[in-house]
Design goal:
270 residues; alpha/beta
Length: 270
């Protein structure tokens, strides 16, 4: 980074982890561009952020958003890929259309954003990218399998991209939050599971999920990990955030798969 304030684009900056990251980066002297599909509704909630209309599911919207950023600053120094949402339900019952929508935002939305940013970072031979994944990518959540699958795909994307850009001065870090207290559950597509053949188990799993977030750390802890990833001289490959994001990878490393799956079932009461 040079003498000017470094610029960063944060996708999904209107709430939760994205909003916390945008606020912290602004406090730490970044020039922050935050994306939202409806930026006109924002402003006071995240002060001093330059809002960019962007729908990560729309190629043209992403292209126009980056053009707006690059018309305002000499170059883009950093990117935080954060936009995403969750759906809930069994693999058997969630429609293919809903599953595609989940991947369209969480995986392909990240991919579109990366493809728009990488040429500018690569040509400058410098820059940072923080990609927000989830511990669910390594420990799939029952009845939230589609979300978990998107985060597993994002993990592979982040690690593979780190290798591709390794000699070009662009550094990639994967941020892996566990449970974080955000409005994520409020925006979850829960679906109608009352008549499901899995109804009892879905109900118990949903109770665990709904009970966990109010007890979880605030999004600021993830924002601090994102800041470290964007500013460390040698950023780590992964930044695990939250106690569950540390314990679960240890289990995956040292325990057999059948036991890991059994522990996941026990945790979610299924």
């Amino acid at each position: 980074m040079d003498a000017r304030n470094p610029s960063v684009l944060v996708t999904g900056a209107s709430s939760g982890i994205g909003a916390a990251a945008a606020r912290l980066l602004r406090e730490r002297s970044f020039e922050v561009f935050g994306t939202s599909r409806r930026p006109e509704r924002l402003g006071a909630d995240v002060p001093d952020i330059r809002w960019i209309p962007m729908d990560v599911c729309d190629e043209d919207s992403v292209r126009k958003g980056f053009a707006e950023v690059l018309s305002a600053v000499p170059r883009l120094d950093a990117l935080v890929c954060n936009a995403g949402f969750g759906i809930f339900g069994s693999v058997e019952e969630v429609s293919i259309a809903a599953a595609k929508e989940q991947f369209e935002t969480n995986f392909f939305g990240t991919l579109r954003t990366l493809r728009a940013a990488i040429p500018h970072l690569r040509e400058a031979r410098r820059g940072r990218i923080a990609i927000v994944g989830s511990i669910a990518g390594r420990a799939p959540i029952p009845f939230q399998v589609h979300y978990s699958a998107t985060k597993a795909a994002v993990e592979s994307l982040a690690l593979g991209l780190r290798n591709e850009l390794h000699p070009l001065g662009v550094k990639i870090a994967l941020i892996e939050p566990g449970d974080i207290e955000t409005p994520f559950n409020d925006r979850m597509e829960w679906g109608d599971t009352a008549t499901s053949p899995y109804a009892d188990r879905i109900r118990r799993c949903e109770e665990v999920i709904r009970e966990s977030l109010p007890k979880a750390p605030p999004p600021e802890v993830v924002a601090r990990a994102i800041y470290r990833a964007l500013t460390a001289r040698r950023p780590r490959v992964r930044y695990a955030v939250g106690s569950d994001s540390i314990l679960l990878p240890l289990g995956r490393r040292f325990l057999p798969d059948w036991l890991v799956l059994r522990l996941i079932r026990f945790h979610f009461r299924v």
